[in-house]
């Protein structure tokens, strides 16, 4: 972060077993400091109920990170609905791994269409679809997610997806719904930011929004000295 001049970042932990959830969340709390904003871990075999959801919120968590491929659930399964409902009521976001995972390419548990079904059923839920709605599923993202009240992050795919596709995305989706993400350590914070600010089809205001202002608004973070309105 220091090398890339990044002063605020969201840190995510993924629990691959239910027994890991509490340990991971304790560690995430322990690393919190100015500029570090962890998202809570969750596992479908240990889903937090409404009371536990509020307890996690009281500990400073703004939302959750889930990885359906690693955790073995389809995002639109009915068993996940109580979790979504509780997160929606608590106004906590959910960051979904979405699209193809190169380590587990055979089954995609979070396709753009499935995420759209979740959004349609829980319209007040703050949904962040990582990897621009789904790596290698950009046509489906364009069909089901663009124009919806869903956030897309740039993690891992920013320098890999065709620029023509990214340009079309920003023409069809609110600029306030794009979030910069690096997917560190699989991505490079400095190189990705340099690439983002080099894109000629984005004006300076749009670049600043994607680079951090949109995330600060989503996470309801206090402005730091030097922030613009």
Task: Tell me the layout of helices and strands.
Layout: E1 9-12, H1 21-30, E2 36-41, H2 50-58, E3 63-66, H3 68-71, H4 81-90, E4 93-96, H5 112-121, E5 127-129, H6 138-144, E6 151-153, H7 163-172, E7 178-179, H8 189-198, H9 204-218
Helix pairs in contact: 2-4, 5-6
Summary keywords:
globular; alpha/beta; disordered C terminus; 229 residues; 7-stranded parallel beta sheet
Number of helices: 9
Order of helices and strands: EHEHEHHEHEHEHEHH
Mean pLDDT: 93
Main sheet properties: 7 strands, parallel
Give a description of the structure.
The protein has nine helices and seven strands; from the N terminus they run βαβαβααβαβαβαβαα. It has 229 residues and is α/β, with parallel strands linked by helices. A seven-stranded parallel sheet has the order 1-2-3-4-5-6-7. β1 (9-12), α1 and β2 (36-41) form a beta-alpha-beta unit. The longest helix has 15 residues, at 204-218. Residues 223-229 have low confidence and may be disordered.
Summarize the structure.
The protein has 229 residues and is an alpha/beta fold. Helix content is 37%, strand content 11%.
């Amino acid at each position: 972060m220091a090398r890339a001049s990044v002063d605020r970042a969201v840190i995510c932990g993924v629990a691959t077993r239910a027994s890991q959830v509490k340990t991971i969340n304790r560690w995430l709390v322990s690393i919190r400091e100015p500029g570090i904003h962890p998202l809570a871990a969750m596992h479908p075999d240990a889903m937090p109920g409404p009371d536990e959801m509020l307890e996690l919120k009281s500990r400073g968590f703004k939302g959750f990170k889930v990885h359906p491929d690693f955790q073995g659930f389809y995002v639109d399964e009915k068993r996940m609905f109580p979790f979504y409902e509780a997160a929606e009521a608590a106004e906590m976001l959910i960051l979904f791994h979405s699209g193809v995972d190169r380590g587990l390419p055979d089954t995609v548990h979070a396709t753009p269409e499935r995420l759209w079904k979740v959004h349609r059923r829980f319209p007040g839920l703050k949904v962040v679809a990582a990897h621009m709605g789904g790596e290698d599923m950009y046509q489906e993202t364009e069909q089901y997610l663009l124009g919806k009240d869903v956030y897309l992050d740039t993690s891992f795919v920013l320098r890999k997806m065709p620029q023509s596709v990214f340009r079309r995305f920003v023409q069809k989706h609110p600029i306030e719904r794009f979030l910069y993400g690096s997917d560190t350590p699989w991505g490079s914070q400095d190189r990705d930011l340099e690439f983002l600010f080099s894109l000629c089809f984005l004006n300076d205001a749009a670049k600043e929004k994607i680079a951090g202002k949109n995330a600060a608004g989503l996470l309801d973070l206090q402005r730091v000295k030097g922030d613009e309105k």
